[in-house]
Amino acid sequence: MTQIDGLPPLSEVIRAHELSAKKSLGQNFLLDLNLTAKIARQAGDLSDCDVLEVGPGPGGLTRGLLAEGARRVLALEKDPRCLPALAEISDAYPGQLLVIEGDALEINPLEHLNPPIRVAANLPYNVGTELLVRWLTPKDWPPFWQSLTLMFQKEVAERIVAAPGTKKYGRLALLAQWRADARIVMELPPEAFVPAPKVHSAVVHLTALEKPRFEADAAVLSGVVAAAFNQRRKMLRSALKALSPDIEDRLRAAGIPPTERAEQVSLEAFCALAREMARS
């Protein structure tokens, strides 16, 4: 295995610090530094960017990001066992790595980052979707980030990029594609990780749009989409009837047949319906 820096292989780091992945923290360590460097490259040119990383573990992706020229990396790590290994990386890259111990759901990273900012992470399985939703639904848009390069379980990644008419198409696809360009850029088999998970993984790259793809009020759109997909097997005239007494008229005004089901409706049509619902 080719080394990307002067630090020991990750397998040695894990042995030296007696690290083992904790299921309770959603950990699966990616030890191949060639793969972590390849993931880092999917984030684009990092030389003029600060990078936010969540759940670095023993630092495989952290090293990839720094080796690929990231201006600075902020790594948020909940597991104190990993801090000594990350400190060794910090020593090897003076002034380029800041490690903060804590829960990424509770830390404001903007206190420690300077724009432009990109996010790159092998997200812990148990918080990955929640973090993505938070990053896609800030109060103001454009967001603090230029792009997100994130590893998920493959099934979650496929839900993010899903198209209408497919079983995986739903709220997550609409949320991501309304405000970002999203594509799967890598797939990884279970054996790439230690311990090997039961599922395949995939890296999704999302690039923030300057403004949402179609006009709609975020809260109204979210409510419409949630109601539609909470009863995705029902026709929309039934699934959405609680939102408005004249829902069939509003569906027709948005160009949607009332007998359609949620998975058949495009993002553009959902946005048109949200605009109709926002009218008094």
Account of the protein in words:
By secondary structure, the protein is α/β, with parallel strands linked by helices. It folds into two domains: 10-208, Vaccinia Virus protein VP39 (Rossmann fold, 3-Layer(aba) Sandwich), CATH 3.40.50.150; 218-278, rRNA adenine dimethylase, C-terminal domain (Helicase, Ruva Protein, domain 3, Orthogonal Bundle), CATH 1.10.8.100. It has eleven helices and nine strands. It has helices spanning 10-16, 33-42, 60-67, 83-92, 128-136, 154-161, 171-179, 218-230, 236-239, 247-253, 267-278; strands at 29-30, 50-54, 72-77, 97-101, 117-122, 145-153, 180-188, 193-194, 201-208. Helix 2 (33-42) crosses helix 3 (60-67). The longest helix is centred in the last third of the chain and has 13 residues, at 218-230. 41% of the residues are buried.
Keywords:
single chain, 280 residues, alpha/beta, Rossmann fold, Helicase, Ruva Protein, domain 3, 2 domains, seven-stranded mixed β-sheet, two-stranded antiparallel ribbon, 11 helices, 9 strands, 19% strand, elongated
CATH homologous superfamily descriptor of the largest domain: Vaccinia Virus protein VP39
Give the termini separation: 63 Å
What would the average pLDDT be, to the nearest integer? 95
**What portion of residues is helical?**
25-40%
**Proportion of β residues?**
15-25%
Please, how many domains? 2
Shape: elongated
